[in-house]
Amino acid sequence: MKRTLSFILVISMLSILLAACGGNSSTDAGGSTDTSGTDSKKAVLVLPEQIGVNPFFVQMDEGFKKAGEEFGIEVKTIESTDPAAFEQNLRAAVAEDYDLIMTATFQAEDALKKVAAENPDKSFAVVDTVVDLPNVRSVGFKEYEGAYLLGAAAGLATKTNIVGMIAAQDIPLIKKYTEGFRAGLASVNPDAKFLINYAGGFDDPAKAKELAIVQFDQGADFIAGASAVGDLGVFEAAKEKGFYTSGQDTDRTVEDPEHIVLSQLKSTDSVAYEELKAFANGSFEFGYVSYGLKEDGVGLTYVTRDSESPLSPFIGQEVVDQVKAIRDKIVSGEIVVKDPLQQ
Fold first, then answer.
1. CA-to-CA distance for 64 and 77, rounded, in angstroms?
2. How far is CA 261 from the centre of its chain?
């Protein structure tokens, strides 16, 4: 009897020691910190492509990891090589029981709709598109506010009083760029002529270049790119013909500061950071939310964020200061930029 009692006591002590050791373990997840204990949350960023291909995702990954480190959330980033791998990666994230699964862009829509609908008890977030499901938080951008600043800068800087834009397609989404730009231009220079042409798609640099040259021949000295991959053709035309241009989403001025003099920004790092922060402090909610200038979701180089590139004399500090004042009025509500899709 004494031997049996002693054996039970030994087994009990070993169980307590093993449990104590398990409670202090930590996991390296994507290079960010983890909190100890059973109450720590886990979040994963599942990207529809590899990070190095698109700066949009590079920024998002940086903001996601920064938030994980600051708010004690175990985070991991999973990159996908193709659409099939992306859906598999989403399913793997569900199987690994992450508390929040975040992804981004229209590339994620089809797979996310399927996986989120099949797992109604899991929490998902998607950036830069909308998935209307009760367990998904969709995060959009007020691109028209950033475009308003870009149009204002072009209107103040132009010497020929003719500016243009090469957009991807004449669709509702693109109107947030074209109409926002048009409104900003008219607000500072109502006499300026605005040329607009559509490349017919998001991946046709040759067509975008051809159209940019047509606008240059019509007198435009600033031609904004808003055609995704097609912007490469606009940049090429600017270098060949000597006009000025702008990029989208990330700071493209670093590629050719002499001709790419501005960039309309989408701050995916700020969005990923703020969404994970909300998840950490309990204010995360499903549904749709939109980030604008006030939330640092959109912006313009030199106006809302610094650039590694020197400011072009074509733009100049005086124009930057005037556009900063416009930015402040939008943030305060003194200027209201209308959403073209709500008119």
1. 9
2. 21
CB atoms within 10 A of CB 218: 12
As a whole number of angstroms, the distance between CA 175 and CA 148 comes to 12
Q: Could you tell me the sign of the dihedral formed by the alpha carbons of 102, 61, 44, 282, in that order?
A: negative
As a residue count, the chain comes to: 343
Report pLDDT digits (tens) over 98-115: 999 999 999 999 999 999
Write the pLDDT tens digit of every residue in 234-282: 999 999 999 999 999 999 999 999 999 999 999 999 999 999 999 999 9
**52: helix, strand or coil:** helix
**Who's near 61: CB < 8 A, 6+ residues apart?**
45, 47, 51, 77, 272
**CA 310, CA 288: separation in Å to the nearest integer?**
37
Binning the chain into helix, strand and coil, the percentages to the nearest 5 are 50, 20, 30
